[in-house]
Amino acid sequence: MSTTPARVYVARLVGLPIFDPQGDQVGKVRDLVVAIRSEVSQPRVLGLVAEVFGRRRIFVPMTRVTNIDAGQVYTTGLLNMRRFEQRSTETLVIGQMLDRTVTISSSGVSGVVYDVAMEQARNRDWVLSRVAVQEPAKGLRRRGQTHVVEWRDVEGLSRREESQGATHLVHALNEMRPADAANMIHDLPLERRTAVVAALDDERLADVLEELPEEDQVEILSHLDSERAADVLEEMSPDDAADLIAELSPETAEALLELMEPEEAEDVRRLMSYVENTAGAMMTPEPVILGPDATIADALAHVRNPELTPALAALVYVCRPPLETPTGRFLGVAHIQRLLREPPSTLVAGALDDSMDPLRPEATIDQVAAHLATYNLVAAPVVDDAGHLVGAVSVDDLLDHMLPEGWRDQAIRSTERRQGRQARPGRPGGGHG
């Protein structure tokens, strides 16, 4: 590892790609596994928690890591694809050590851990060597003073905390894509997950909830007070909120709908009124809708919204007022590629594609799939019998409903069979090798 930095800060490793010797990416770094023996002895780094194929987390021993630099991690390529299971003697640096309250023994200063450094010892083992500690803010300061000290100078890291903050872990989660953050939250111990959920703002929690399995969604929502649960549901896309509310008891569902803003609740109730696994049930009621007097420049400004998924940004839906679903008469769609070829000052009505029949709310999953495939679309309008646009179905909505439960695990098993000759077996009875 001659090109590996002498000291590596763990929080900066999270999210880095992991490559095999051929330069192919095999995963991403999600955490670091260490064995803490005492507050005097530097903990030995056992390995990385890596996220591979379909969000599965595996253990990569440090003996398989050949190089770490500013932008990536390289391995020998021999990976055990068995799912990572943490042992009682192991500690996750990101998941469990960040935000731990500690005391610097030489000065008596207390603070919370916001990063940890590792380096190689003389025997070539990786160990945790330094701890970055932040004091509480004082006076008018927004942040407290920071200290980077030797491992042996910190007290409090070898014991478990009953109550642990989540500020710095939340900061790390906020740097991730929602799907990646959801996967990390899924794997946290219950008490740590509760602290993280409490610290996330409503919008970010909504983004993460949309990426979690239904059982996790229900469990997290059930631990929120009703007012906050309603606020989070308002931040979710209406179709995802409708799916989640449908998993709750009728009494709880109705109570939360009553607490939501009337307009948000109306969208959710409307989606819940459609038969499950139809275009109406899976659509979003909030595509990009413009009137026929809008210009190409107006349309392009709307599709630049970073909160839109690529599928929803691919089409602009042109309707007579009112421009909120259910709209006035649906006139047609304008494809983003066509908009990019037209002068910005021209009317969007001049770029309409009205050659396709729109979907009906009662269209089945197979009918929706056939429609998107036939016309090479990533999204399509859903129009009621009166010709009003009621929503749009995108290809990601369709896939969410078409793929069987546990499809990611099935993909992993097929990958394991293909790579079985290269993978080394883990220790008997353990979660990793």
For the secondary structure, the number of strands is 18
The overall average pLDDT, rounded, is 87
Q: What is the number of helices?
A: 16
**Category by helix and strand content:** alpha+beta
Q: Helix coverage percent of residues?
A: 25-40%
Q: What is the level-2 CATH architecture name of the domain at 289-402? A: Roll
Uncertain residue ranges: 407-431
Protein name: Mg/Co/Ni transporter MgtE (Contains CBS domain)
InterPro entries: CBS_dom, CBS_dom_sf, Mg_transptr_MgtE_intracell_dom, MgtE_N_sf, MgtE_transporter, PRC-brl_dom, PRC_barrel-like_sf, SH3_actinomycetes
Organism: Nocardioides lianchengensis
Domain CBS: 352-410
Structure description:
The chain is of the alpha+beta class and 433 residues long. Among the domains are: 8-91, PRC-barrel domain (SH3 type barrels), CATH 2.30.30; 289-402, CBS-domain. It has 16 helices and 18 strands. It has helices spanning 93-97, 167-174, 178-187, 190-199, 202-209, 214-222, 226-235, 238-245, 250-259, 262-272, 279-282, 296-303, 336-341, 365-374, 395-402, 407-419, and strands spanning 8-9, 17-19, 25-35, 44-52, 56-61, 65-68, 73-75, 91-92, 101-104, 110-120, 126-134, 146-150, 154-155, 289-290, 315-319, 330-335, 379-383, 389-394. Strands 2, 3, 4, 5, 6, 7 and 8 form a seven-stranded mixed sheet that branches. Strands 1, 9, 10, 11, 12 and 13 form a six-stranded antiparallel sheet that branches. The chain starts with 7 loop residues before the first strand and ends in a 14-residue tail after the last helix.
